[in-house]
Amino acid sequence: MLPRNYPCDFLTARGFKNSMRVTLGLTIFFFTAVLLRAETSVEIDLQEQRAYLLQNGRPVMVSPISSGRYGHLTKTGSFTVVEKERNHYSSMYGKIVDANGNTVVADADADMQVPRGGKFIPAPMRYFMRFDGADGMHAGYLPGYPASHGCVRMPEQLAIAFFEAVQVGTPVTVIGRTPVNRYYSGQSQPGYPRGPRFGPFTGQGYRPPPPPPGVWWR
Predict the structure, then answer these.
(1) Torsion of Cα atoms, 10 then 16 then 18 then 22, to 10°
(2) DSSP label at residue 31
(3) Three-state secondary structure call for residue 22
């Protein structure tokens, strides 16, 4: 305890307090900047049929996926998100219905012939995150194997979570080889093949649900 007659320089004390405030403010600003600069990225593993949302290289979310099937394999490589669209429709794939609304071709290309009175209906691709040409991540049906035309389908709730987390410019890395099954012949697929980075997924196992009524964009 200082004696009562101890000389006190109030200007010095006030300056010290101001310096502490500035230091504290700069510290808070620094840590906020670090948090804001935490790099978000996506890694898609074709072999595992999973997509990982990463923060500074660490997985914070994982989603089962259905990638491109034989003849429409999802490309491997390094990409970035170039477009986000909440309510996107394919310009290439969908279904063809007749004049009565009955499905004539369930898995149709946009350039297929349409019967008189019928029409081509584009496939919905909600929460679309384009990263390579026409291909992107989006909500869709997962049958339990690679089944798309090159896009990466996710369950809708997880597609929403990924959609909200990424921005245009977010890095997307696609690795691995599309698994061999009766829908894929196992031909060579170049680029980025390697083992799983993050070990086995320990969350609740995913079982593909039966397609809801009316689902045709498989």
Answers:
(1) 180
(2) H
(3) helix
What is the DSSP-derived secondary structure letter of residue 212?
P
- Fill in the DSSP letter of residue 147: -
Enter the tokens of residue 69.
């099937």
Q: Indicate whether this model's pTM tops 0.85.
A: no
What phi and psi values does residue 146 have, to the nearest 5 degrees?
A: -60, 125
Diameter over CA atoms, the chain = 104
Domain locations in the chain as residue ranges: 39-175
The architecture (CATH level 2) of 39-175 comes to: Beta Barrel (2.40)
Mean pLDDT by 10 residues, the chain (218 residues): 52 57 53 57 96 95 94 95 89 73 72 78 85 94 91 95 96 93 51 50 41 43
Cβ neighbors of 65 (< 8 A, separation 6 or more) are: 44, 49, 50, 51, 137, 142, 152, 153, 154
22 sits in the region (left: phi over 0; alpha: psi -120 to 50; else beta) called alpha
Please count the residues of the chain: 218
Distance, in Å, from the CA atom of 208 to the CA atom of 66, rounded to the nearest integer, reads 10
DSSP 75: P
